[in-house]
Amino acid sequence: MAILLALLAAAANALATILQRIGVEEASPAPGSTRSLMASVLRRPIWFAGLGLTTASFFLQAIALSLGDLSTVQPVMVTEIVFLVLVLGSWFRRTLGWRELVGATGTAAGLGVFLALSAARGGHGRPSHLDWALLLLACGGAVALAAGAARRGPRWWRAAAYGVAAGICFALTAAFVKSAADQWQHGPLTLLVHFEAYGVAVSGLAGLVLSQHALEAGPVAASQSALLIVNPLSSIVIGVWLFGDHLHAFGARAGLEGAALFVMFTALFVLSGSPLVATGAEERLTEQRPYERVVTSSPT
Q1: Distances (CA, A) of 45 to 41, 225, 253, 289
Q2: What are the residue boundaries of the structural domains of the chain, listed by start?
Q3: Which listed site, 91, 120, 219, 233, has its alpha carbon 20 to 30 Å from 153?
Q4: Helix count (H) and strand count (E) of the chain?
Q5: Contact 115, 3 (CB under 8 A)
Q6: Backbone region of residue 246 per phi and psi (left: phi > 0; alpha: psi in -120 to 50; beta: other values)
């Protein structure tokens, strides 16, 4: 059930990205006017439809995390980019090329094999405050190092470094969401007296800001590939460390799981370079509408 809900959340988020982007691009604000843009966007029902799907996606992911393990749900969420490409190809009647076919097939196959072999199951319930403190120090240090590395170097390096930082933040956000979702059964007001709910807001906002820096810093293929690879990997590590997730990773089985993840990540890298996702392939998209050139995905 958790995997199914995670797939539904990924699909909803992909469709929400497209609807909201269309709402923004079809608005006609005065140049440089943020207020005019928002006023025009708020008159677009399609934008509100996207907002509703984004909200639905968040709750579906939260329920999936409450029912399943972090190390299972978050890797499934990367299928958002697969749904994004498939919906864009169908919506705008674009022929899917080798990048889209290889990327989508490889992602699905690698993810399926990994989930089947790892057979993750949760270990313990609520993490201790010491575990949270150590995790926050580790994640904060890793994000700081990645963001620092993004301050210099070629554009692809800066985009990838920001993508790494955003991926860690989104993995941490998912950990906060899982912990908060586990507390929900004690009543909504319980969330107000625990730090996890506030952690969702802080880490989620940090991930959003860093992902936008990644998109501005360089090629989308670099930033999205880094984010899509680091997010599930970080989630698996956090799931094992913080929640005691048990993965069946011993002997030859561990090698096969590693190979499955390698296939999935390679496929995600290929898919991130698709003209349907990347904003940098202007020469191949000159005949499309503007909003078809700027749709990007930032799975959480």
Answers
A1: 9, 32, 49, 19
A2: 70-292
A3: 233
A4: 11, 0
A5: yes
A6: beta
